[in-house]
Prior knowledge:
Elements lengths: L18 H10 L5 H8 L3 H14 L3 H8 L8 H18 L4 E6 L4 E7 L5 E8 H9 L3 E3 L5 E6 L1 H15 L9 H8 L19 H6 L12 H17 L12 H12 L4 H30 L4 H8 L6 H17 L11
Helix pairs in contact: 1-3, 2-3, 5-7, 7-8, 10-12, 10-14, 11-12, 12-14
Amino acid sequence: MTNLHHAQTRPGWTALFPEEAHRYLAHTADRRPLRDIAREAGCHPSTILRQVRKLETLRDDPLVDRVLTEHSGAVRDEAASYRALDAVVEAMRLLCQPRAMMLYREGVAQAAIIKASGTGDTLALGTVALDVAAALILRNWVSTDSDAALKRYRLTDEGRSQLPRLVAARDARAARTQGAPCDLFHLAFPERRSRDRSTSGGPGSESPLIALARRRGPDGKPFLPAEFIAAGDRLHEDYTVAGFARIDLLGWDGPDALQPLYDRANQLTDRLRRQASTRTLDAVKDLGPGLSDIVLRCCCLREGLEATEKRLGWSARSGKVVLRIALQRLSLFYAGTRTQKPVLIG
């Protein structure tokens, strides 16, 4: 554990913070009214007020309080964003080790990650920049059960479940074109999404397919059979592993439009990502431009049906019928392929 007393808060790394923290800083640091922030976020001012109060509570943690106090404003720095993602992945991989924990004492310039051995000794695994450590706390990826001066943080179940997504997002950088850091962070941190409430990927949310699966048709059978749900879930898994940007597969109008993505997939050195990319492109190509849009939005991007209908200009309640037709075709496509085993994340 060296260089513990060198400043380790870095411009541009606040992209790691969840959306609630950015809204909190907009209100407290930038002095913006709650109503303006709510209007921009597409929610009620009381929602922003609850988020502000929650962040105020989190500031009881000296590490979070220090980072938010030293916040110097958002800086769009692509290179810093990539380094920040690398730092988060490395920190969480270290914390995944048995008996590993993150330590912080008020006044030091970095948090430390250590591992306790069975004999009572400790092994220093590395150090963590304060803004990275604060991001882990704000996202509930680490938590502490200690009120002592020396704070001990351990990886939460939520943080452990997010690590495969973070690794996939970091690996996707090799295939990402320059100038698209926001797409990378949208993949890595799903709650930092566009400010329009059209997606439902937050904690506790579920795929639109699950809600439709609960419905029954006139014959009493489920509106979406199990094989349709499985096909949508498989596309979502492949899409996530492949690391496509949000805009990569939406709005294409012909087979030639997908060729650059096929070329990019063939250049990937990671076998699993290459195979997942190819499978996703094959499925999208088989669905065609129209049906693929609703499947991608509902299954992969987790958009609600109402939001998708508005985006595509469809009449109300027509989306579920089109989605069912698209999932039927998708299930037939997967049934006709030899690669029946899906890629598992984690």
